[in-house]
Amino acid sequence: MPRDALKQLETQIGHQFANADLLEQALTHSSFSGAGKDYERLEFLGDRVLGLLLAEYFFARFEHDDEGALSIRLHAEARMSTLADVARELGLAQHIRVQTGFDVANHDTVLADVVESVIAAIYLDAGLGAADAFLKRHWPLRDAVEQQISKDAKSQLQEWCMQKGIALPIYRHLDKSGPDHAPNLTYEVSVTGHAPETATSSSRKQAEQVAASRLLARLSKESGV
Fold this sequence. Notes:
Layout: H1 3-13, H2 20-26, H3 40-61, H4 67-78, H5 80-90, H6 108-126, H7 128-138, H8 153-164, E1 170-177, E2 184-190, E3 197-201, H9 204-223
Antiparallel strand pairs: 1-2, 2-3
Helix pairs in contact: 2-6, 3-4, 3-6, 4-9, 5-6, 6-7, 8-9
């Protein structure tokens, strides 16, 4: 990448790299001819860094939310469409190195992967604090008033099934342990054609909500939502 273009992108991102090779790798798709390293390993790391930072943010900001509510918030901010929106705001498409003819600007999967790769590159270059600064600077995080959960996870999962034209989710009690006054209840939720998810809580309602939120997050990632 030309030095001027690199400096421009660093300004847009808000981070000056000590190791500019990390940024170049974060912007290199596996289809790019002659690339020494592509972004796939960085994307793997960036996904985990982003998840940690979002979890910490919501844990601190919404102290009265239970696990299910926190999971829904995290899912909304870590889904592919949100990541792709961040990439577009930063103008990353014009800097991504791909094979000739690849219209990366309209390819949400690649845009989302590159954002996670950039997060990993910043983390490796300057640590978790720098990655968190990038998140706070560019993420569409809503405040406590705006970020209301309009539908619970079970309702969202039911709507997802209806949109796909498949049977509604099935919830199943798997296990109970602990004393009667403080039980641990494990429930499973499944939908046609996909592996189930489970969750354990002291109440059936909570366990089902958390299981539904986990399945929603996976289904959305698989379908590119």
